[in-house]
């Protein structure tokens, strides 16, 4: 199949490149990002044969935004890191790869703040194949019977610790303030595609893979094993179920509510962070947190560190009407009994 660009595509690209060279060759003082965005907008508005495809325009705008991003903007937070201690065995490592659906698993010693490296699933498969191959060769030498194809590992081999297997690779350690483009270049140069984000005290703050960086430019990269995870579900009768990791901006667009004023936009990025900011602590399961807009957040699932699942009540629950008890009809006073008439009550007879 030919890999050459059709003449129409070549003309569109050359036309855009000509505009970019004219813009940046003029010696103006505007920033690179502003200039490039203006060129893209102007070129897209011109129409005709030179119009930029939506995908290409979206990618160019993503590049502009990516240039201003820092590592902390793209990292996986500490609470979402899937990692294993170096004392775990090969069986647990294999199960972790299957359950997490990741190709790399960080390895730590005792705590997540002491990450020593990571294991790639290819290294694990290679190790398993080598172990199986050694046994096959030994079996063939001892017997003329052919050995069955596939992996053949003993319980003892699966019980070996990660440290004993020696599968760990080195990874990068970077600060959260590092520019994201610099990290991408560093990963390409070092051929190490996983970085641990450390805070000022040396503790683990998050994790960044090269896929995380590339997706900021080209969009989500999904393969046949990925499943679409809905972070917000429902909406019937104004009730939603949301993951604590959902982005506040996405939730604001969905519900058409401004949860944080401009001066407090840096307080939180996720729904869980918003609830933590409102309550001043991590609320417990079953607790209701009311936003000034009237929306209520009901905690479905949480642990001592974070809010996991939330039920959002968008319609303010009306307070139950207090009905005053009906006034009972006034009781008529009992009639005064007539004075008794008898010998003891007759004053004349008493006299």
Return Rg in Å: 35 Å
Low-confidence stretches are 1-17, 23-30, 317-328
CATH superfamily of the largest domain, please?
A: CBS-domain
Report strand %: 15-25%
What does this entry look like structurally?
The protein has 351 residues and is α+β, with helices and mostly antiparallel strands. The protein has 3 domains: 62 residues, no CATH class; 135 residues, CBS-domain, CATH 3.10.580; 82 residues, Uridine Diphospho-n-acetylenolpyruvylglucosamine Reductase, domain 3. 38% of the residues lie in helices and 15% in strands. Helix 1 crosses helix 2 and helix 2 runs antiparallel to helix 3.
Secondary structure layout:
Blueprint: H1 7-24, H2 32-46, H3 54-67, H4 71-74, E1 76-77, E2 84-85, H5 90-100, E3 104-108, E4 115-120, H6 121-142, H7 155-158, H8 162-165, E5 172-174, H9 180-190, E6 194-198, E7 204-209, H10 210-218, E8 232-234, E9 239-243, H11 248-255, H12 271-279, E10 288-290, E11 296-302, E12 307-313, H13 347-350
Parallel strand pairs: 2-3, 5-6
Antiparallel strand pairs: 1-7, 3-4, 6-7, 8-9, 9-12, 10-11, 11-12
């Amino acid at each position: 199949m030919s890999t050459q660009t059709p003449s129409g595509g070549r003309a569109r690209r050359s036309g855009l490149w000509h505009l970019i060279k004219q813009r940046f060759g003029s010696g103006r003082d505007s920033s690179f990002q502003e200039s490039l965005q203006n060129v893209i907008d102007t070129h897209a508005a011109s129409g005709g044969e030179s119009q930029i495809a939506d995908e290409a325009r979206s990618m160019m705008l993503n590049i502009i935004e990516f240039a201003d991003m820092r590592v902390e903007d793209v990292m996986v937070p500490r609470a979402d890191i899937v990692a294993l201690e170096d004392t775990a065995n090969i069986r647990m490592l294999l199960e972790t790869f299957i359950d997490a659906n990741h190709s790399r698993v960080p390895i730590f010693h005792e705590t997540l703040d002491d990450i020593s490296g990571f294991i790639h699933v290819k290294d694990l498969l290679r190790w398993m194949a080598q172990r199986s191959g050694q046994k096959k060769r030994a079996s063939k030498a001892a017997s003329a019977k052919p050995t069955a194809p596939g992996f053949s590992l003993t319980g003892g081999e699966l019980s070996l610790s990660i440290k004993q297997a020696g599968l760990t690779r080195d990874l990068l350690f970077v600060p959260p303030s590092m520019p994201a483009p610099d990290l991408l270049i560093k990963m390409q140069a070092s051929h190490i595609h996983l970085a641990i984000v450390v805070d000022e005290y040396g503790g683990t703050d998050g994790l960044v893979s090269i896929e995380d960086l590339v997706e900021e430019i080209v969009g989500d990269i999904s393969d046949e094993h990925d499943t679409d995870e809905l972070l917000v579900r429902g909406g019937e009768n104004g009730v939603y179920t949301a993951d604590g990791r959902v982005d506040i901006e996405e939730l604001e667009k969905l519900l058409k509510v401004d949860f944080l004023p401009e001066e407090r936009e840096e307080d939180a990025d996720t729904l869980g962070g918003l609830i933590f900011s409102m309550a001043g602590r991590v609320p417990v399961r079953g607790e209701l947190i009311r936003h000034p807009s009237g929306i209520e957040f009901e905690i479905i699932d949480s642990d001592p560190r974070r809010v996991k699942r939330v039920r959002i009540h968008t319609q303010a629950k009306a307070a139950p009407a207090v009905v005053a008890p009906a006034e009972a009809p006034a009781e008529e006073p009992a009639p005064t009994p007539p004075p008794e008439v008898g010998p003891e009550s007759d004053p004349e007879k008493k006299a």
